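Quick check before the chapter quiz. The format below is the same one you will see on the exam, so make sure you can read both the input and the output lines.
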Amino acid sequence: MNDTRHRSPPAFLAPRDLAALIDISAVQAFHTEADVRELAGIAVAEGFIAAHALPNFVPLLRGLVPMGGVTLVGGPVGFPSGGHTTRTKVAEAAELAGNGAQELDMMMNVGRLKSGDLDYVRREIRAVVEAIAPVPLKVILELAHLTDAEIRTASALVAESGAAFVKTGTGWTPSATTLEKLKIIVETVDGAVEVKASGGIRSLDAIAGMVRLGVTRFGINTKVAVDLVRQCAALPGGRLDITGKAD
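Here is the expected output.
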């Protein structure tokens, strides 16, 4: 488990620093082999921290992204509903890790959480964590389906599970991640795991506010991510002020 309690947010982000916080992906049902190839090229050229593809494309992506470089290869588990059995999630995660995935994002079982079956959710996360160790696991909550109380409960379960990150959403729902919801997560996990914000993040101001709050990773649409890195480079001094103070 990562402990981020003593980690201070950076004061500024240069374009490469910003890219090093962003995962880009091709994980929609319509994404093709050509999309995955394009994803890999962009991720490597821009220095994004990770590129994620749907499970069947992970071996292709692994072959396109150089080992030992800046960019990690990742993929989703139990995606996008989270309703798969634990055995299926464990098998899928193990196969992805065996195919060279260096981090995995798993959709939590929302139905079990909302049913109050917290032991099931806890056991499932731990089972996947153990199956892929030392590959880090991010657990997706899908905030659009949860009340504030359920967000607190889910975040606490992830924090005690051995996962590396709690993640806000899959990007498959129309709801954008907000600072208000992120505050609930950050306060609940209290640095025990890192926080990845994903869904509707479209501006440098939003990123700065989330980094100040304690977010350490972002999932952003590839085109938008590239545009944001370009916008960062065009700022005075070529860097994004996280403090909100004058440079």
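If your answer matched, good. The longest strand covers residues 72-77.
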